[in-house]
Design goal:
alpha+beta; GMP Synthetase, Chain A, domain 3; 2 domains; three-stranded mixed β-sheet; 5 helices; elongated
Length: about 180
Amino acid sequence: MKIRLIPTLLTALLSAALLFGGWFLYRQFAVQEPLEKIVSSYKGVNASHISINRNAVTLKLDLQPGTKLRELVQYINNEGESLIGSRTVNLDVVQHSNQTLDEYWDKAMFSVAEAMESRKYTIIPEKLKELSTQYKNVTATTEIDGNNVYVSLTDGKESKFIILPREPEKMGVWNNA
């Protein structure tokens, strides 16, 4: 029995095109598009870009000043639970910061890092409130959930969003040690 080359190759190409085309269409229309609708329907989200891979969903978000990050994350996890599945959700927030907000965060960073390291999360709002006497136009908001501490700094027009993981990365063996 002689196998003909052209029909075999055409069948293989057609099968591959159907398989990968179907997978792409499923991912686009059954997962990514509904998740984009969920995210963009939340009040305070200007724009979003979603990237989905096997283990993670990465959300690149452009947010309005004053948007509550913890509530947004909770909303996405609750409404998109069936779409996200066992994937982890990673947020990448577009920063619309200015010099005042950057200075505020630079002055608060050491105290916040110390509170995160010692796991005394109640110190963070206190330290940020102490700085508010120097920066009267800046409003600092802190929120916490099971995974992250969310710090939002805003002066009404501009905003800076900081997401601090509660479980820091574990230091491994150094390559040059």
